[in-house]
Design goal:
- With 186 residues, the protein is mainly alpha-helical.
- It folds into two domains: 131 residues, no CATH class; 46 residues.
- The chain is built from nine helices and five strands, in the order H-H-H-H-H-H-H-H-E-E-E-E-H-E.
- Strands 2-1-5 form a three-stranded antiparallel β-sheet.
- The two termini are 24 Å apart.
Length: 186
């Protein structure tokens, strides 16, 4: 746990009591590290909170800083759980208002990030997704089956009158039980 830093441990403890975590002196890096911690300890909602906070911080515009380079380093060190965060960091440096001088500052220390930026520019150099309204599109609901705990991407209403069949165990459960079993995001 301490390999993510003291601020990450403090944020996780705070999250366990408040279902949120406070900002730090390095918010971008903290948000990426919290996604990694959420994946490591299987805390789905923490991952969502960290992703939303990262998107909001990046949306406000970012200057090159130690925080940005630390966030890039953390995201590219642990690629699987940080796929969405890596895309947002790429989108940030591909924005027209991110100057070539600023780009040099963040590319030099991170060759794998530089490679991904080059590949994105080769594909057209535009951010992969629009920033406005994207959270609704990206955060698709995933629910666990109340019986076997398998995941489904099917839209399920919170209804007690309607039942849904799990694609894994083939058992039926009311929509309200699916939602009680936990809300997850992909």
């Amino acid at each position: 746990m301490t390999d993510n830093g003291e601020d990450c441990v403090e944020a996780l403890i705070y999250y366990l009591y408040h279902l949120d975590y406070p900002e730090s002196n390095s918010p971008l890096a903290l948000h990426v590290k919290m996604v990694i911690v959420a994946d490591k300890y299987d805390i789905g909602y923490l991952s969502v909170i960290a992703y939303v906070k990262l998107v909001e911080a990046l949306r406000n515009g970012v200057e090159p800083s130690d925080d940005l380079t630390d966030a890039i380093q953390a995201a590219w060190e642990v690629e699987a759980p940080t796929k969405n965060e890596r895309q947002k960091l790429l989108d940030t440096v591909l924005r027209p208002d991110f100057s070539a001088e600023h780009l040099d500052m963040v590319l030099d220390p991170h060759p794998r990030f530089a490679r991904d930026v080059a590949m994105a520019q080769k594909k057209g150099g535009e951010p992969a997704r629009r920033w406005e309204g994207e959270l609704v599109l990206e955060l698709r609901t995933r629910l666990r089956c109340p019986e076997c705990h398998g995941f489904t991407d099917v839209e399920i209403e919170k209804s007690i009158a309607r039942t849904y069949q799990c694609l894994s165990c083939h058992r039926y459960s009311m929509g309200s039980r699916w939602h009680q079993s936990g809300l997850w995001f992909k």
